[in-house]
Amino acid sequence: MYTLRVKQHFDAAHFLRGYEGDCARLHGHTWEVEIALQYDKLNELGMAIDFKSVKQILKDILPDHKCLNEVYTFNPTAENLAKYLYEELKLDFDSHLQKVSIWESPGCCVEYHE
Known about the structure:
Layout: E1 2-14, E2 27-39, H1 51-61, E3 66-67, H2 68-71, H3 78-93, E4 97-105, E5 108-112
Parallel strand pairs: 1-3
Antiparallel strand pairs: 1-2, 2-4, 4-5
């Protein structure tokens, strides 16, 4: 069994609706997203999947340099964003997608999986 991990970052702002504290105000992060894909077979080239194609899918789905509150209808917490990205990436990777991890800062991470 092979587990492939691909990381991509994006810069985006957000504010947390209904939160009492600093994060209720507009602020930004350099978000880091990592996805884990699992394969039991390799193709004729000896690859499970081309990293380049995985990175392109991530690039296409991540909202770089945007305000997340303007992109999504849900409250853009790291937890909600991890679940949303998982559900979107599941459309491309199906049963190969194991989990999505998202950091909004180097020390704070959320992982989502089914």
